[in-house]
Hints:
Keywords: Membrane, Transmembrane, Transmembrane helix. The chain crosses the membrane at residues 59-76, 97-116, 136-157, 178-200, 206-233. The chain is mainly alpha-helical. It has helices at 2-18, 20-23, 25-39, 46-51, 56-70, 72-81, 86-89, 95-113, 115-119, 126-146, 148-155, 163-170, 174-198, 204-239.
Amino acid sequence: MWSDIRDVYRAAGAFALACPLLFLIPPLCEMLQHVVEYRIGMYDSLAAFKAVANDNSRMGFGILKVVATLLPGYWFTRFMGNGHDVRAAHDFRAFGWWGLVMLVSLLLTATGLFLGDILAPLHLGKQAATFVGAGYNIATAVLGIYLTAWGVAWALGNRAIGPRGSIRIMAGSFWRTIGYVIAGALPLMIVHYALGYGALGRPPALLWPMLTLDALVVGLLALTLAGASFVAARHAAAKKQVSLA
Length: 245
């Protein structure tokens, strides 16, 4: 397992150097959100951060950032799945079909982000709304684990593996996949949040270098998350003696 994780992080660094334009798409979207956050005073203090955390303009750019962080699921999967071949990463012939997988992920994520507004007409109590939100997040996370092979296979151009086939492949690899996702996300998430909270109240001369570094960390995080999904699906498919390509 740890050799797979090392492979993900090494591939992320190699990809960032080999395909800088693709790598920079998530960081640029992250920087756009930082600009919006700065303009609404989010970095003035911790109190200001809490006050505008759900600002509509920030949430709008949040959706853009979600799209940007999902996109490496295509090109980085192809990069890892084809022996770090840069040409494979730039081959977009399978992008249309993989885009359907991304659309499903985006709809589930957007529903989670705006679940409070969706539930508002039901006039649920705070405790009930919290329970429903937690249940939704758990359900979508579990579903995402079992659909991992679907996204990887379609990114590699193999449309023979759909949602049902993905569930069959990932069955028996649930906890290992969670381990891959945690290992691929947690280290960079810690740095991401440390930079974000550390930037609060800082002067612009220090604030913007911290936010720029944070954006680059988000770019790497988008890759390692995609890479974690790839190695999880690769391991599960090998157990079931199925080819993802």
